[in-house]
Write a structure and sequence with these properties.
Keywords: Cell membrane, Ion transport, Membrane, Sodium, Sodium transport, Symport, Transmembrane, Transmembrane helix, Transport
Number of helices: 24
Protein name: Cation/acetate symporter
Subcellular location: Membrane
Strand order of the largest sheet: 1-3
Number of domains: 2
Strand content: under 5%
Distance between the termini: 57 Å
CATH architecture of the largest domain: Up-down Bundle
Order of helices and strands: HHHHHHHHHHHHHHEHHEEHEHHHHHHH
Largest sheet: 2 strands, antiparallel
CATH superfamily of the largest domain: Sodium/glucose cotransporter
Pfam families: SSF
Membrane topology: Multi-pass membrane protein
Helix content: 55-70%
Number of strands: 4
């Protein structure tokens, strides 16, 4: 049986399960569409939250970013995991006790302002749309490879699948579909990692294998050597930065990690999951279980990245870095390189024998020592012309020459990760449009049936928009998602924190704070990315990247959050105090007594 047929079987079977669950759990009311009827068990909700959270960025892209950068990109792990601790301790139980359907509804009621609710809707849509672009990018990568079609065609097919099960199921259908998707994605991520860890270091636990001695075959015949030690040696010999050293400046690393943390705690599609449980105490338990389920992947990801980088480098230099690079003939004839030919068809991997020597040199041609070595050997630039980092995890089983069924399982897992989060994000967007914008403001007398239909139409429109934007994303999946976290950190998180823990922040302060945080962050990202030109030219001035102490666009969300907090407090202190009934409401939400038995309000 061909690999293509095996991929179809795994992907087709998983999709049949998802769509079957969505039909079984089809939402019949707005309560079921927005909050699954508030009847989801904490363990079930924790698993669904983990699937909602472990998106294409976590499953597909994060290990690739770690693999090609090393220690510096461990910020993704620290930020995303730390954010869940903030969410569990500071937000989830209080928001559940408030008893609303959406984040925007909480902000509107807490700050006693329809304007605040509408600004929150705008912030939510901007952050969620940016996030869903990253998911659709991952969908295109996975579908493109495993159906052996172009990245664009894969993205379009993925959009149709999301439409099929998310539009009709709502939160109820999405919740139970995500439970199935979690099982698929965690098996798909860990099983190949176990195989590769056994190959390289002889241990079935990848997280331990990362710090173990590698086998003589993988070490090139050397004596006892640690995996990371060998990887450092190889990449530095090829002119790349050391894998285990820190190269990113401390300011960007701290701000980026903080941006991911508070962005996590402010993401609407994650917060919405805690509205689905019966009690306030269940919200805490859901967050705890989600951390357990997430840890299974996050403890494995660094090992996947390091082991994949080592395998790729060994394949590109089969005789060692002081010998010959891989030959064009080997790529054409050796089964170990079949993965390169299949990924080439997606447009995400490419190579070129620039100097016609029959070899494909892979090295850092920006490094002075390697440039000198290249000149001495007649090399003409790095001949691995394209290696999209998002392909690494999906290609990992093929690179390691694992069985065909493992590759098929990886196909299903990658798609499960991207589709589960895409569904959650699209649900957050549709809820904001139908419940907060239409029902809450424009047509308050709308019937429940009409509201349910408007929610489904809004989700369908959001899928179309996300697909169009996903065709030309602003970076790799994880990088695009990082921008979304920055936007959520700068706009939504401060409003939620001040709404829960401060009675002094009023409606005017909250609105001004959200607008200031979102506006600053958006403008900075657009300028830093070169999408907003101030000199009328086709390029961005060289000074812009360093205009804010060299802060990168993915790290600016933490600064935007600080601006949000500052503006909100300054404006609040300069305007009328919060009404007493709102102060009483805030105090009642924070009272811990009886929280374990608190039910809907």
């Amino acid at each position: 049986m061909s690999q293509f047929v095996i991929n179809l079987l795994f992907v087709g079977a998983s999709f049949a399960i998802y769509i079957g669950i969505a039909i079984w759990a089809r939402a019949g009311s707005t309560s079921e569409f927005y909050a699954a009827g508030r009847g989801v068990h904490p363990v079930t909700n924790g698993m669904a939250t983990a699937a909602d959270w472990m998106s294409a960025a976590s499953f597909i892209s994060m290990a690739g970013l770690i693999a090609f950068t090393g220690y510096d990109n461990s910020s993704y792990l620290m930020g995303w995991t730390g954010g869940y601790v903030l969410l569990a301790l500071l937000l989830a139980p209080y928001l559940r006790k408030f008893g609303k359907f959406t984040v925007s509804e909480f902000i509107g009621d807490r700050f006693y302002s329809p304007t605040a609710r509408m600004v929150a809707v705008v912030c939510l849509i901007v952050a969620s749309t940016t996030y869903v672009i990253g998911q659709m990018t991952g969908v295109g990568v996975a579908f493109g490879r495993f159906l052996e079609i172009s990245n664009t065609a894969g993205l379009l097919i993925g959009a149709c699948v999301v439409f099929a099960y998310a539009v009709f199921g709502g939160m109820k259908g999405v919740t139970y579909t995500q439970v199935a998707q979690y099982v698929v994605l965690i098996l798909a991520f860990t099983i190949p990692a176990v195989f590769i860890s056994l190959q390289l270091v002889g241990t079935p636990i990848p997280a331990l294998g990362l710090f173990s001695h590698i086998s003589p075959e993988a070490s090139g015949g050397e004596g006892s050597v640690y995996l990371l030690q060998k990887l450092d040696q190889i990449v530095t010999e090829l002119g790349f930065a050391s894998y285990t050293d820190q190269h990113k400046d401390n300011l960007n690393m701290v701000l980026f990690t903080l941006s991911l943390m508070i962005g996590t705690a402010g993401l609407p599609h994650v917060i919405m999951r805690f509205f689905t449980v019966p009690k306030v105490s269940d919200a805490r338990w859901s967050a705890g279980w989600a951390l357990v389920f997430i840890a299974l992947l996050y403890l494995t990801a660094p090992a996947v990245g390091a082991m994949a980088r080592l395998n790729i480098t060994n394949l590109m230099w089969p005789n060692g870095t002081q010998g010959d690079a891989v030959s064009v003939q080997m790529i054409e004839e050796d089964a170990r390189y079949d993965w390169m030919k299949t990924w080439q068809t997606t447009g995400l991997l490419g190579w070129e024998d620039k100097n016609g020597d029959g070899m494909i040199q892979y090295y850092n041609d920006q490094n002075a020592e390697m440039a000198e070595r290249a000149a001495a050997n007649g090399w003409v630039g790095n001949e691995l012309t394209n290696f999209n980092q998002d392909i690494l995890v999906l290609a990992n089983p093929e690179i390691a020459n694992l069985p065909s069924w493992v590759i098929g399982l990886m196909a299903a897992g990658g798609l499960a990760a991207a589709l589960s989060t895409a569904a959650g994000l699209l649900l957050a967007i549709s809820s904001a449009v139908s419940h907060d914008l239409l029902k809450g403001q424009l047509t308050p007398n709308m019937s429940e049936k009409a509201e349910l239909m408007s929610a489904r139409v809004a989700m369908a429109v959001a899928i179309v928009v996300a697909t169009i934007l996903g065709l030309n994303p602003p970076g790799f999946a994880a990088q695009t998602v990082a921008l979304a976290f920055g936007l959520a950190a700068a706009s939504i998180f401060p409003a939620l924190m001040m709404g829960i823990f401060s009675t002094r922040v009023n409606n005017v302060g909250a609105v001004c704070g959200m607008l200031a945080g979102l506006g600053f962050t958006l403008v900075y990202i657009f300028m830093h990315k070169g999408w907003l030109f101030i000199d009328g030219t086709n390029s961005f001035p060289d000074t812009v990247e360093g205009s804010m102490l060299g802060i990168q666009s993915t790290a600016i969300g933490a600064v935007g959050a600080a601006i949000n907090f500052a503006v909100a407090y300054i404006v609040s202190l300069s305007t009328k105090d919060t009404p007493q009934e709102i102060k009483d409401l805030v105090e009642s939400v924070r009272i811990p007594a009886g929280a374990g038995g608190a039910v809907d309000h």
